[in-house]
Amino acid sequence: MHFRTKTVVILVMAFILYVDTNAQSHYSPTESNLVARKWFQDAKFGLFIHWGVYSVRGRGEWVMYRDQIPIPQYEQLPAFFNPIAFDAAEWVSMAKDAGMKYITITSKHHDGFAMFDSKVSDWDIIDRTPYKKDVMKMLAEECRRQGLKLCFYYSQLDWHHSDYWPLGRTGDGLSKPAGGDWNKYLEYQNAQLTELLTNYGEIGGIWFDGWWDKKKGDWQLGKTYELIHSLQPQVLIGNNHHMPPFDGEDFQMFEKDLPGRNTTGFSGDSEIGDLPLETCETINNSWGFNLTDRNYKSTRELVQYLVKAAGNNANFLLNVGPMPNGKIQPEFVKILTEIGQWLEVYGESIYSTRGGPIEQRPWGVTTAKEKTVYVHILDWQDKTLSIPLLERKVRQAVLLNTGEKIRIDKNSDGMVLHLPVINPEDFDTIVKLIL
Prior knowledge:
Blueprint: H1 7-16, H2 31-43, E1 45-49, H3 63-66, H4 71-74, H5 88-97, E2 102-108, H6 125-128, H7 135-146, E3 149-155, H8 182-198, E4 205-209, H9 221-231, E5 236-239, E6 252-255, E7 277-282, H10 299-311, E8 314-320, H11 330-346, E9 354-355, E10 364-369, E11 372-377, E12 384-387, E13 396-399, E14 407-411, E15 414-418, E16 429-434
Parallel strand pairs: 1-2, 1-8, 2-3, 3-4, 4-5, 6-7, 7-8
Antiparallel strand pairs: 9-10, 10-11, 11-16, 12-15, 13-16, 14-15
Helix pairs in contact: 1-8, 5-7, 5-11, 8-9
């Protein structure tokens, strides 16, 4: 790892701004942070972007590990990364048209390669690629222009850095030299986070990943979290550690699962906490660009996932893996456009809502805001639907898209909604209950 002359300056800045403790004890979020949390919960839908030099291989973001590419060979990859077709305005417009309110992008993935102009390393897009432009800066500026918030994914795991030692569970086969100073690696990590939080304007959040590689490691999360909150108090910190939230974190994430579910095996220890929630998922089966992965989820599946996430009081962060030329493949664009068209009609039942009074059922979910409950019927063909009695009286029930009145009868178990013939082509039949 090669360091520039500005390394010491950056590190001094970092250490001045956080205290020398192993945990951020009794974290109390600032007022601006609480405001940001509410905004986050209201936003409901974001774009996840996994992009890096690994896209050149077209085999996903874990290619260095999966193909067991030694560091000297992997260091040749950036020379082939020249995304001259990248257009920040096009990306942000695509997200906005899809109804998304924020973007979370990989500033550094597990290969350690910085997709920004880092002054503490030359293992970055400016120094190692023929492109030599800071895509994070262009994206940050465009997000501000178009009114979306930008969040940075940052991998704590680093297959490239010489001081990421001892190796974690993913370190085998990379021909990494033995030895290293773990504390120096953490200094490097915090210096890069300082860069991201001082050179790119106001940031919405930091999305950490990779802690799970060394669960027993001395990560000194308190130092890192306090550094972040001291630089930008409103920033929301989340960590994909698959554990209950740690002190200093501002939202809880669930990878490829709805909160409280564990279909993937990632969320075994992730009990639902009191923080805002987010779930993330891919359009095909890959996070990074994968040339042969054609297992695209349908627009129907993804709209229903968004609805279920909202019904479970969570945001939905939907991923794309851009191609190495900087374009987003047309299959992804088409699906995102169709989701946006659905949200134009039904968005009021998603945005600014919270999980509704009726927990997820086989037929669907509910969302709620103010004096309204939205009953999302995702899988039901009968003419009536029984639901529990609500605490407040229902004054009126209508179909959201047409305003058609829905008859309600009470019985000993609750209420019975008399439904029109449900079109099986509809992604979601929504009954609006006005309280």
